[in-house]
Amino acid sequence: MLLMVVSAIALLMVMAAVAASLRWRRLSASEARVLLTGGGTGGHVNPCLAIAEGIRGREPESRFLYVGVRGKAEAVIVGRTGYPLRFVKAVGFPGLRLSPRLIKFFALLLVGMTQSIVILLGFAPRWIVATGGYVSAPIVFAALLLRLLRIAPVRIFVHEQNSTPGLFNAAIGRWADRVLLTFPQTSSLFPKNGVVVGYPVRHSIAVKTREQALADLPFQVSPSRKVVFVFGGSQGSRSINRGIVDALQHLLPHHSQVFIIHGMGLMASDDYRAVEDTEKRFQASYSAEEQEILRSCYYRQDYFHNIGDIYAISDLVVCRAGAGSLNEISRLAKPALLIPKANLPGDHQVMNARAMKHAGAVELLFEDAVVEEGRVLESIDGKALAERIWGLLQDTAKLEEISVNSGRFLRKHAIERILGQLYQDKSFTDGAGLQAVPYRPLLSNQQLLRMLESASGKQGAAFDPLREIGDPDDLAYYRYRAAALLTNPAWQDRNLGVKLVGLTHYREKIPALLHMMVDRTPVGWLKRRLGGDFVEVGFIRRNITQALRVINVINGEVERDLLVAMEDPYYEVRAQACRTAAHFSASLAGKEVWLAALLKRLQDDSFEVLVEAARAIGELGVDGRALDALMDLCNSFRWQVRDAALQGVKRLLERRIICPSAELLQRISCFVLTATDFRPHFSIKESYRSIEAFCRQRMGPPTDCGNNRFVPPMATGKR
Question: What is the pTM of this model?
């Protein structure tokens, strides 16, 4: 009986599947039914809408259904187009590490796929056009499942807007019928089904005269003013919003010549509310009189649905490096200053921006990582932003050059190429075989560290990170990445950041390095029991002293905190502080505080510190006290200490602080030149012999030593 029930249920399911499949095939054959999905930001939504416009232009009776996630950009943007809109459950992928967020991701993906199956069976689309973002995942996975069960005769097209694929597109691309690419650089990642078509731009983003656009705007702009359009994507950008508000202070002197149009964005999350935060900062930054002046040259709004009009009147665009924005400014040949958002999957905005920069089609400005409001935030310096904006507006030849290169950069007729793929009619070339313009790939942090450490070790004082990296914009980006690491919770990442800040010569981060070097915030009880001391561990403090040498900047603040490092509880920090003092000997020699600090280190419990202190005294000493201190080490138990003392004496001779003489040779004869461990080569003997040779070659009257001469005590009878 049970077997009969199970068989009947199975038969009913098969019949239902067959009926659903037949219905699907009948509906999709009778009319163009297109399911659009993709969202989270306008950069995913707008390409979908542009493709829909192209399909409707060919088949006006086409039916569309947009599937997204409630509360995201698609809810606002698609809602204004009139297309039917359905929502499913989905969240972004949190990574493979087991966590509550990962469990939530899979649970919502299962719910979203169930919702998607219901939507797909009801709508029966001929095509699914997915433009990425986690919003697309439930629909596409559900469609693949229905195709596997031979229920869904649907073709799946995935459009990748960026030069580096997003996580979803990279995963799903192998099963899609076609992966429609914007950048030629991406084609190697999809060798079987990838075609370069370009980026579909909405018909509303069209070439329009300035006069026509000005007439359609809800605000007034003087035709004689240079117009700058600043925005951070559909959701907005905290750093760009705050940066442009701060920049207004520096643009005030030019208020009669410039007009700033600011798109603040739609973001309204617990973490950041774009409009509210921008308004609050503006009100706090400017007096009533300044605000009155700014009303004549600054207009802000959350989102511009008529963005084509704003582009039309703009002389310069300041924005993120999302593929949508880049293709829009390229289509309209607009000069742009890009501020790419870093640390996105595959660094795709940075890669997009670099591709255009290498073609001379944009200028770049990178964010900085700062601690603000007790959190690590990306930040843009208002003064720097204002200077870049005003500098570009003043350089009309540069703007014209960027405009021409921008107009040439990306492929045109993207919608026609995409329609050729959908309809399989070869009505327009599919872009196969288009070659990418080669440019140097970005390095990982570890690759960058290895390259710069090798170059620095070989070149010494001649080391220049820009020469090794080859591009000022890439160097600026690597510096941003290094600065971001300084505030990472993991000490290993902070340590890596310290090294990279030094090797990239990021001088603006010296105050941050100094703060970390002298920070004495204690670790918790457990870590103290395991041998820890401070939050900024000894390795970090040691490497900061090394980074200061590489950056090669000495000032009052550096000198002050190096003296603190000389007293650090970790011996490697004290040793490296001595080495750094020796490196800056030209600035520190003759200062009593430094001689006293180094003499104190000669009493250190660690022989490694004694070695570096002895060498440093040879670089900083300017009178007989330096020689006396080094001579006191002649019977040290450690041969390395005795060797360092002799090296210090040699440097005093070379610097002409003391005179070569028979008396000096007699004094150094007290040094024990043997070692307790077996070594085939003893450098201490070479150090001793080099002093002997130096003295015998240069022995002469005391006047040969110059103004800083010092006659050894044995020669004068004084000690």
Answer: 0.66
